[in-house]
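Input C-alpha cells:
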C-alpha cells in the first residue's frame, strides 16, 4: 500500500509525525511525505525533532501570503504528484488550507483521502477562519474520518456521514507529546529576567480572525495587567512571524519590563515553557489540546472553540478578546491560589491514535467512483 502524507504547518507536522513514524515502520506500507511549506521556518523545526525527511517539498510560502495563493498552489502541485505516481491513500490532518486543497486534489484524481482529526465543529464558518470551512470541506471529501473524540464522531454522524467511515482514535497530539516530553531538558532557548516568585503567563495569539482590533484588545489587556501587577507576573509571548501580528505585538508590548517578546520558539522549547507556565493565554487550536493534556490552566482568546472537551474538562475557559474581560479573568487568576499541574490527562487520548489510524488504512477498502 502506498500512502502520501501531506502537511504544511507546524501544528500539522506535530500531529502527523507519529503517524508517519508508524507508517514507515510497517512492512506492508510504502510511505511518502510531501510538505507544502505553508509555514516554512516553523515546519522545519518539527521535521528535525522527529527525524522526518520529506520526499517532496513544494515550498509554496510567500511573505504575507493570501489564502487564494495557498489554495491554488497546493491544489496544482499536489495534483501533479498524484498524476506522477499512483497512491492508495492521501493522508491529511486538521483544518489548514493545505489540508483542504490537498484533499480536493486527491478527490479530483479519485485517490482515497484519510482525514486525521475529523469532526471538530463550531458551526460558524468565520470562527475559526478559514479553518472551520477547511475542515468541513475535507470531511465531506474524506473516505476515512479519524475522529479524535466521541463528540467529534457525533458531529459526523449528525451530518449523515456513514458510520462505517468513522473511527474514534484519540488525538495524535498525545502521541507526539509522549514522544517529546520524555526529554525536555535543554528546551529553554530564551533568556529573560523574571523576578523570583513571579507567575509566568505564556501567550500565543496569531489567528486570522483576531487580526486587527481583537489582537489590539488582547495586547492592551496584557499591557495593562503587566503594569498593574508589576513583578508579581511575567508574560512570555513568542510572536508569530506574520506581519499582522508582529506590528501590533511590538507596538503595544515592546516597552514593558515584565513582558518578554520572543521569536517563534522551536516546538521542544515551546513545550518546555508550557511546562513551566502557571497560565496559558492562547487563540490556538492545538495549544488547547497540548495544555489540557499537560494539565495546564488555559484561557482561550476566542468566542467559540471546536474543542469543547478542553472546556468541559475544567482546564480551559473561553474568555474572548474583549480587553476588560481578559483583564478581569487574568486579575482573578493571578491573585488567587496557585494552580498546581497534575499528571498528563487522557482528555484527548491515550497515545495510541497513530497505531489505530495505520491499521484502519490497511483494512479499509474505499469505494472510489
Amino acid at each position: 500500500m502506498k500512502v502520501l502524507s501531506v502537511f504544511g504547518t507546524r501544528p500539522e507536522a506535530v500531529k502527523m509525525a507519529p503517524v508517519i513514524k508508524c507508517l514507515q515502520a510497517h512492512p506492508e506500507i510504502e510511505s511518502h511525505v510531501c510538505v507544502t511549506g505553508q509555514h516554512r521556518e516553523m515546519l522545519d523545526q518539527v521535521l528535525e525533532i522527529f527525524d522526518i525527511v520529506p520526499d517532496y517539498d513544494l515550498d509554496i510560502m510567500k511573505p504575507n501570503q493570501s489564502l487564494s495563493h495557498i489554495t491554488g498552489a497546493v491544489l496544482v502541485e499536489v495534483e501533479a504528484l498524484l498524476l506522477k505516481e499512483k497512491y492508495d491513500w492521501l493522508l491529511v490532518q486538521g483544518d489548514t488550507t493545505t489540508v483542504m486543497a490537498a484533499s480536493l486534489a486527491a478527490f479530483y484524481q479519485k485517490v482515497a483521502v484519510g482525514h486525521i482529526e475529523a469532526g471538530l465543529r463550531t458551526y460558524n464558518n468565520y470562527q475559526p477562519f478559514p479553518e472551520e470551512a477547511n475542515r468541513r470541506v475535507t470531511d465531506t471529501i474524506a473516505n476515512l474520518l479519524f475522529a479524535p473524540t466521541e463528540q467529534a464522531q457525533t458531529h459526523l454522524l449528525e451530518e449523515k456521514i456513514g458510520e462505517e467511515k468513522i473511527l474514534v482514535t484519540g488525538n495524535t497530539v498525545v502521541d507526539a507529546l509522549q514522544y517529546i516530553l520524555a526529554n525536555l531538558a535543554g528546551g529553554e532557548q530564551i533568556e529573560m529576567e523574571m523576578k523570583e516568585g513571579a507567575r509566568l503567563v505564556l501567550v500565543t495569539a496569531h489567528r486570522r480572525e483576531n487580526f486587527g482590533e481583537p489582537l489590539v484588545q488582547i495586547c492592551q489587556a496584557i499591557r495593562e495587567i503587566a503594569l498593574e501587577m508589576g513583578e508579581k507576573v511575567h508574560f512570555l509571548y513568542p510572536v508569530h512571524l506574520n506581519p499582522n501580528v508582529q506590528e501590533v505585538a511590538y507596538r503595544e508590548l515592546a516597552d514593558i519590563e515584565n513582558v518578554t517578546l520572543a521569536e517563534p520558539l522551536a516546538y521542544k522549547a515551546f513545550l518546555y515553557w508550557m511546562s513551566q507556565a502557571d497560565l496559558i493565554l492562547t487563540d490556538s487550536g492545538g495549544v488547547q489540546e497540548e495544555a489540557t493534556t499537560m494539565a495546564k490552566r488555559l484561557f482561550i482568546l476566542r468566542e467559540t472553540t471546536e474543542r469543547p472537551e478542553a472546556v468541559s474538562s475544567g482546564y480551559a475557559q473561553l474568555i474572548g478578546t474583549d480587553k476588560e474581560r481578559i483583564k478581569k479573568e487574568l486579575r482573578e487568576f493571578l491573585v488567587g491560589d496557585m494552580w498546581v499541574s497534575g499528571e498528563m490527562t487522557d482528555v484527548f487520548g491515550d497515545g495510541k491514535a497513530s497505531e489505530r489510524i495505520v491499521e484502519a488504512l490497511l483494512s479499509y477498502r474505499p469505494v472510489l467512483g
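The chain has a mean pLDDT of 93. The first helix runs from residue 10 to 25.
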